[in-house]
Amino acid sequence: MTETTTGTTPTAERTWGGGTGTPLLEVKDLVKHFPVRSTGVIRRVVGQVQAVDGVSFSVGRGESLGLVGESGCGKSTTGRLITRLLDPTSGEVRFEGTDIGSLSPRKMLPFRREIQIIFQDPYSSLNPRHTVGSIIGTPLRVHNIVPKKDVLSRVQELLEVVGLNPEHYNRYPGEFSGGQRQRIGIARALAVRPKLIVADEPVSALDVSIQAQVVNLLADLQKEFGISFVFIAHDLAIVRHFCPKIAVMYLGKIVEVADRERLYTQPHHPYTQALLSAVPDVGQAAVGGRRERIRLFGDVPSPIDPPSGCRFRTRCWKAQDICASQEPPLRTLVGGHQVACHFAAPPSAADAQASQAAVAAAVDGDGEVPLGR
Ligand SMILES: Nc1ncnc2c1ncn2[C@@H]1O[C@H](COP(=O)(O)OP(=O)(O)OP(=O)(O)O)[C@@H](O)[C@H]1O
Ligand code: SF4
Ligand SMILES: [Mg+2]
């Protein structure tokens, strides 16, 4: 490790979006396990999907945190826990200091207005039988945002804000393209003037040509209305332009958190280095000036029976014996950079070579990276 570690900094002192003061959102040791049941008449619980397993981060007012990781690492589950679409198994989700993780539906109601979600799929997230006016107007009515007589004009105003024709309030979702539908979803989220929006892969279902437009719209809205964002994505290219702070998840855990510049130029966790080396325009910087790609082999292990110690060890070219026996804590380096790795270090050209050698060994052998190499 090239930097002095200072031990784990309590998340309460940080606002991972980049500012100071009490965070708007503070997630502490958040856990969500889904029971796995046997088939048959008596459906006994035979295991737990450890979808989210001890995640902590915070987001300040008006700030954006990117949450990135491969498919199945627990990003959407984290987003649904923050918005209380799911109840946590344990841990805390503090919004303006209140732990909303166990509030009753009645007590939760005011927070539902403050915390909104934009879903990945603009096709299934809008009811095809409701007009755009009804989709955007319903939250206005439910939360009494404007008097009834003003709902239509407010809907039209919101359509204009997201770049749609205000006269189209009477149309149905099926009459819009994917990008336009996502704009409707954004207008619905904005309608209640939320303080926090969880955007769960909001552009991954859209054409590449449309993605930048929607991300730019979200960035403009974030600036204009001072909304905080948790922006979920499966690759580092999308969050790069939107989020000053980025958290990388692997198999239910956060493995690295850093501000954008540090993460892109000095990723310390082998998993982040591998993710970054796959992003074409930053790959060179991420592997210490060399173009070689850091390669990972194999699939993400099952979250029902994750590897002992470090969950990344079955795919890590740097793994040693300690990685199997001791889980690396998320340690804070100088500059607030956090990383969970026993051998955290900035990337070097040797990493690319070692990772490629590990891939070759796995192809020749049994698919496992030998420990203690
Ligand atoms: N309701 C559920 N019941 C059981 N397992 C679930 C449930 N929801 C999610 N999971 C499992 O939890 C893990 C994390 O899922 P999640 O949807 O949070 O991942 P993700 O990072 O959002 O993936 P993707 O990039 O594919 O959207 C996966 O193994 C998933 O199969
Ligand atoms: S703790 Fe070990 S296995 Fe995990 S990322 Fe670091 S070196 Fe790799
Ligand atoms: Mg998801």
TrEMBL record:
Ranges for the region named Disordered are 1-21
Which branch of life, at top level? Bacteria
- Report the GO molecular function annotations: ATP binding; ATP hydrolysis activity
Q: InterPro entries from the entry? A: AAA+_ATPase, ABC_transp_ATP-bind, ABC_transporter-like_ATP-bd, ABC_transporter-like_CS, Oligopep_ABC_C, P-loop_NTPase
Keyword Ribosomal protein set for record: no
Comp. bias (Low complexity): 1-15
Tell me the ranges covered by the ABC transporter domain, including all copies.
36-276
- Into which family does the record put it? Belongs to the ABC transporter superfamily.
* Protein name from the UniProt record: Oligopeptide/dipeptide ABC transporter ATP-binding protein
